[in-house]
Design brief:
Number of domains: 2
Strand order of the largest sheet: 5-13-10-6-9-8-7
CATH class of the largest domain: Alpha Beta
CATH topology of the largest domain: Major capsid protein gp5 fold
Largest sheet: 7 strands, mixed
Helix content: 25-40%
CATH superfamily of the largest domain: Major capsid protein gp5
Distance between the termini: 68 Å
Amino acid sequence: MVATIEREAELRKEHIDTAVKAVVKIEEKWKALCTVDSSNSYTESYFRETNDDDTDTGTYSPIRGVPEFVPFPYVDVKETKVSAVIEKYAATSLISMEAGQYATVPMLQRKIYRIGRKIIYQEDKAIHDAVTVATTGHGNTVAIAVGYEWDSDTIQNRDPVKDILDCVQTLRVDGIDALKGNGKIVLNGQDYTNFISNSKVLNHPTYESGVMQNGQVGKILGMAIVVSEIVTADSAFVLVAKQGMVWKQANALTTVTTVTPGKFTQIDAWERGVFQSQAPNEICKLTNTRKT
């Protein structure tokens, strides 16, 4: 009998661990755009690259037409060292014995959902904030002209498809092709509403509707549309996922469930990691999507 009770407790813990991880995987948006790489350091450093693959220049001579007996030109890009401390993302939740047994609302399921959402929201926010900083002065930006915002009073001036293509072209100049299958358009809910209600979007031959995963709600120009409320108002991003965006993971998401008989069940969950924007030019920030 004791062995049966202990086994049931272990199964319950395994269920909670799996469920929290499933919630995080479903709810992640920005983190889903990153390559995940392991780390065993307290401080992670990387070299942020510039991108000038179209420039025919180097030390000693141009790339094209190297003269005889002249050393090959060095073509290393400019790199800036960036360091960041691994951060812990953690949360805990308690379920009383009474709530777990008698509540009409499935309390355990609600607690699992809430703890998973809170952790991934903060991780996504950290990634978004770092991307915003990286694109300021380091990455690519495109500004929509005043009067041509996606909610402009002059309806014929609204042209979100052209604005997205301007971002694609800005990336292409740096040798980044957002149309090769891994391009993403990331925007918040209000800008998505303005975007998707535009006839130039709905009638575009490449537009595909349909809810997919990780906030993806459709595709246009071959790029998935991702809705994230973390994106600040009046902006959007066009980027290539899983290239210059890296999540350095020191500890994968871990949960521990502790049952105090007659009192409560405690769920602890944590993860440790930090985001790196190794190639900011692979991200283009679009601004002035809304009128002021």
